[in-house]
């Protein structure tokens, strides 16, 4: 798309600001009417301007699903900034963009090829669309207890076996910033005329610095869904979906988004997307330069702490790991005899450091444009303190059996996730559920990777893993029984 707009403009933000200055008697939603009816404790705490800007789709503010003025212009600016042909703003996170991308590509019964380690929103997309997943098990690294991305040869193999597949979805990057060879995957998809959808929730910053991995659209993806809120300067839930090329029907994507989105989108979220886009268009490279500097400095200092290891590359070569985002710091604490959950708790309680993602062996820290040198110093000091204490206490190596991510089923599903979701179910004891077909989507959160999913036969390793991570402090989401003593399965 050729540049037609002034990147210094932020049309939604500027118009919203102007609207808050206009004196009038409001007889429209929201009920608090410019903050005047808000509970006083909220306005005292957050300030009146936030609520004055909480406006509905007034004529000058355009309409999210029929954009003709400021939203249209802001979305076009975003498309130019992120290297897309067309961009949609999302007020319900990348979750809604991922579900919509699946609905826009797959009808009921259509096949989609994807890694088993997808985010739970993908399973929602499968349930709503009726698409049949063809899962690829990404390579698992036992040293790190992490799954990497999908290799292009695995995608090619799956497409050979399922030439009728409609789409391939990649998680690019993973939560740990690991990137698979998306250029090669894109070539394979183009050769077969199959759409490539990228869950780029963790990668919206990639466009802005040469030392970051290549952005999914630049590498040849047709669609990219990005959580602007996760790493850039937008409010929580503010995301974007971008499309490049003409292989995906934009009207169907638009219609799918409308199925999933509130008819009262928050202008605070939309304005934050607009402002975050402008910030990155004007200063993105410098902001990422500094973020990368902080990330590299943290990585080097933590790597020098005895008892800790920092993820740099895979422990054995794999095509599921071709690049890494240096703004993600992944620390393996297992040599201290601690789980990632315990390390996370101790870091928070004793050192005032809070990570993004604890897992059985690792803790992952997101360094982003909001971090400072002081944060990094605190992180390094916290990890030094932790290592000193637990090495000195002789806990090194630990006496607890290692907790490995279960080998999740690469087998075809017994039922489509949709059929399992709507099937008659029964509730049974979790320990009796092995080989039964799950009716539930159960995942520790974060990272939100389902361990049980509707339609999949339940394996013993998955039950053991869920009990073990729960004992070690993970929050299980999606289970009808939060204690996970029972589970819902499809009636036989
Ligand atoms: C890989 C991945 N994809 C998608 C999502 C959903 O993103 P959002 O929270 O913006 O809905 C997440 C959220 O954690 C994620 O980790």
TrEMBL record:
Domain of life from the UniProt record: Bacteria
What cofactor does its activity depend on?
A: pyridoxal 5'-phosphate
InterPro entries hit by this protein: Orn/Lys/Arg_deCO2ase_major_dom, Orn_Lys_Arg_decarboxylase-I, Prn/Lys/Arg_de-COase_C, PyrdxlP-dep_Trfase, PyrdxlP-dep_Trfase_major
Keyword Protein biosynthesis tagged: no
Q: Which residues form the Orn/Lys/Arg decarboxylases family 1 pyridoxal-P attachment site domain?
A: 225-239
- Keyword annotations of the record: Aminotransferase, Decarboxylase, Lyase, Pyridoxal phosphate, Transferase
GO function term, MF aspect, one? transaminase activity
UniProt xrefs under SUPFAM superfamilies = PLP-dependent transferases
Family listed = Belongs to the Orn/Lys/Arg decarboxylase class-I family.
Q: What name does the UniProt record give this protein?
A: Aminotransferase class I/II-fold pyridoxal phosphate-dependent enzyme
Q: Which organism is it from?
A: Oxynema aestuarii AP17
